[in-house]
Write a structure and sequence with these properties.
This is Bifunctional cystathionine gamma-lyase/homocysteine desulfhydrase. Pfam families: Cys_Met_Meta_PP. The chain is built from 14 helices and twelve strands. It is α/β, with parallel strands linked by helices and 377 residues long. The chain binds pyridoxal-5'-phosphate. Pyridoxal-5'-phosphate binds next to helix 3 and helix 4.
Length: 377
């Protein structure tokens, strides 16, 4: 099955109980048992719910894994996955990960005795230097947020396997439409489904997929124990959004490419970060491991004041956090999504005060380009 077909026919597309072509919202917390301890697959909705289950089977098939799990947010998914670690374990993390991932690792997991080192995972030498005897996992985000750095997934998987480490990949930016990390050897994929998978800025959700069933069972055990599950309404809404993922990703990408090329040739713009540009440092790698470059672009206008001028003048780019939805969004990571990262660290990473991030929506390309042109004048 090709991807666009899988989006429609993957998982459990038809309700097995009624034949409904849209799996219904099973709004039930508990289920009648035929005898004490004998149920029909569902006993309590924290443990399992038919609507959530259909979503979990869909993401499992899209990522090509053994088990899919749906959570109340991307962070709930990441928290559950990182709960596979024990006190005393060490974790390697991509240096410019999503701000919330940085926060949970440095402010929450650290209190449980889980230590982390942030490394530039685009450089294998950095990994060798940072790995410790207590290291248990490598957490990679690729492409990264907001600088669109690309990590070689096959190389990271080989490196992790050699050392017996789990490779966890945050695939939020790529989505399974463009890249499937499990196929390159990752053990677990996580998503903020709030972004492209949902695609309409109307649901907060997280997903995780494991390559093997045993790890999936362990993860489900923690999910059920912790309880950060996705409700049935949101599971339904997410599935509805995912059906058009292919159409949307192609539209996002076409707009993003046009915007990146326009910005790269604009005198008021210093750096443009987009893996689809031939001068992006990992352009060839991105081409090799993904079927597309995505819809996210970052660019530097030099100062916070200039960034503010652009934000004030744009008409079709909504100033908001988040990304991946049908409407174009614009943000200044240093003061918004990445404000929880200390300024010094931000500057080292290249997340300057003048850095603007765009999530290209699916509006008309010419309108978006004209809008950026007038806002950069
Ligand atoms: C938004 C985001 C998250 C967190 O997901 P939530 O759904 O907001 O909890 C994690 N990783 C990346 C790359 C994100 O963009």
């Amino acid at each position: 099955m090709n991807k666009k077909t899988k989006l429609i026919h993957g998982g459990t597309p038809i309700d097995p109980h009624t034949g409904a072509v849209s799996v219904p919202i099973y709004q039930a917390s508990t289920y009648k048992q035929d005898e004490a301890g004998v149920h029909r697959g569902y006993e309590y909705s924290r443990t399992g719910n038919p609507t959530r289950h259909a979503l979990e089977e869909l993401i499992r098939d899209l990522e090509g894994g053994a088990r899919g799990l749906a959570f109340s947010s991307g962070m709930a998914a990441i928290h559950t996955v990182l709960s596979l670690l024990n006190s005393g374990d060490h974790l390697l993390v991509t240096d410019d990960v999503y701000g919330g991932t940085y926060r949970i690792v440095t402010r929450v997991l650290n209190r449980l005795g889980i230590e982390a080192t942030f490394v530039d995972t685009t450089d294998p030498a950095g990994l060798d230097e940072a790995v410790k005897p207590a290291t248990k996992a490598l957490f990679v985000e690729t492409p990264t947020n907001p600088l669109l750095k690309v990590t070689d997934l096959a190389a990271a998987a080989a490196w992790a396997k050699e050392r017996g480490l789990l490779l966890i990949v945050d695939n939020t930016f790529g989505t399974p439409y463009w890249q499937t990390p499990l196929a390159w050897g990752a053990d677990i994929v996580v998503h903020s489904a709030t972004k492209y998978l949902g695609g309409h800025s109307d649901v907060v959700a997280g997903l995780a997929v494991t390559a093997d069933a045993k790890l999936g069972e362990e993860l489900h055990y923690i999910q059920n124990a912790v309880g950060g599950v996705l409700g049935s309404h949101d599971s339904w809404l997410l599935m509805r959004g995912m059906k058009t993922l292919g159409l949307r990703m192609e539209a996002h990408e076409a707009n993003a490419r046009a915007i990146a090329e326009f910005l790269a040739g604009h005198p008021a713009v210093r750096n443009v970060y987009y893996p689809g540009l031939p001068d992006h440092p990992q352009h060839e790698l991105a081409k090799r491991q993904s079927d597309g470059f995505g819809g996210m672009i970052a660019f530097d206008v030099g100062s916070a004041e200039r960034a503010d001028r652009v934000l004030k003048r744009v008409r079709y780019f909504t100033l908001a956090e988040s990304l991946g939805a049908v409407e174009s969004l614009i943000s200044v990571p240093a003061r918004m999504t990445h404000a929880s990262i200390p300024k010094e660290r931000r500057e080292t990473l290249g997340i300057t005060d003048g850095l603007i991030r765009i999530s290209a929506g699916i509006e008309d390309k010419d309108d978006l380009l004209a809008d950026l042109a007038q806002s950069l004048e």
